[in-house]
């Protein structure tokens, strides 16, 4: 079983400390819902894992079969809030190109049509340019492209905010079906979503990670506990 081990991580922008000596261990087979107030540092943390941002101190390591190593970009799939896609390609061209470029990393021989269907995209949309896709359609195609690679770590930054209820249902299933293979961390402001698909909640507040103690994610006290902690502050790492 893989683990993502974050130790004493500190990240700042100029004078602003966003993460400060914070630690957390994420395990394969679990979906972690990350909650925090606007500007708490959730995207910054994901950017550090994906090596899109450098951090000042601490470490982020992948433990595989007991051996610890630094992450490489190949370890991480990252679904951004605002998908970064080649807008001049059609959905079909993008998935075909993506499969071709990554053919050494993709298990099986499923074709672009399979993945476009998996993304819940109607056939009429396959040959539209990505620039003409709605935000939700872009998110769906980006999620499917991320799942294709079967990376040990999957990051989802506010993944379901722009998709319709049916697509959200389908995407939740795609994410949960994938959880045995990966360490999945997603950020959200939607408590219901966090309760629906998370195995564990991670709060990012006052520059540090914490859990929600013994509170059952699915209990009626959960919402009050999260609000109390994010409003008042938490003191310890987990
Ligand atoms: N490139 C940057 N340069 C300077 N400051 C930045 C940069 N990126 C993020 N920040 C700052 O770091 C802090 C954390 O931002 P971040 O986007 O990580 O928060 P977030 O938890 O994802 O917020 P939200 O929930 O609103 O999306 C904010 O104060 C933000 O202004």
Automatic annotation (TrEMBL):
The keyword RNA-binding does not apply. InterPro entries: AAA+_ATPase, ABC_transporter-like_ATP-bd, ABC_transporter-like_CS, ABC_Transporter_VariousFunc, P-loop_NTPase. Residues 4-231 form the ABC transporter domain. Signal peptide: none annotated. It comes from Amylolactobacillus amylotrophicus DSM 20534. PROSITE patterns: ABC_TRANSPORTER_1 (PS00211), ABC_TRANSPORTER_2 (PS50893). Transmembrane segments: none annotated. This is ABC-type uncharacterized transport system, ATPase component. It comes from the Bacteria. Keywords: ATP-binding, Nucleotide-binding, Transport. The keyword ATP-binding applies. One of its GO terms (molecular function) is ATP hydrolysis activity.
């Amino acid at each position: 079983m893989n683990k993502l081990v974050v130790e004493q991580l500190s990240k700042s922008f100029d004078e602003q400390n966003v993460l400060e000596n914070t630690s957390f261990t994420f395990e394969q087979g679990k979906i972690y819902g990350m909650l925090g107030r606007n500007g708490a540092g959730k995207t910054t943390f994901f950017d550090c894992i994906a090596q899109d941002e450098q951090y000042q101190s601490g470490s982020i390591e992948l433990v595989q079969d007991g051996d610890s190593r630094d992450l490489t970009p190949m370890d991480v799939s990252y679904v951004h809030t605002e998908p970064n896609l080649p807008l001049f390609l059609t959905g079909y061209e993008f998935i075909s190109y993506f499969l071709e470029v990554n053919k050494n990393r993709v298990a099986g021989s499923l074709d672009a049509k399979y993945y476009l269907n998996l993304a819940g995209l109607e056939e009429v949309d396959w040959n539209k340019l990505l620039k003409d896709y709605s935000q939700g359609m872009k998110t769906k195609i980006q999620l499917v492209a991320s799942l294709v690679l079967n990376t040990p770590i999957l990051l989802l930054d506010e993944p379901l905010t722009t998709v319709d209820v049916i697509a959200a249902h389908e995407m939740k299933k795609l994410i949960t079906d994938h959880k045995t293979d990966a360490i999945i961390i997603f950020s959200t402001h939607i408590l219901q979503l966090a309760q629906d698909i998370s195995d564990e909640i991670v709060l990012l507040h006052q520059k540090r990670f914490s859990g929600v103690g013994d509170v059952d994610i699915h209990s009626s006290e959960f919402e009050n506990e999260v609000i109390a902690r994010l409003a008042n502050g938490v003191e310890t790492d987990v």
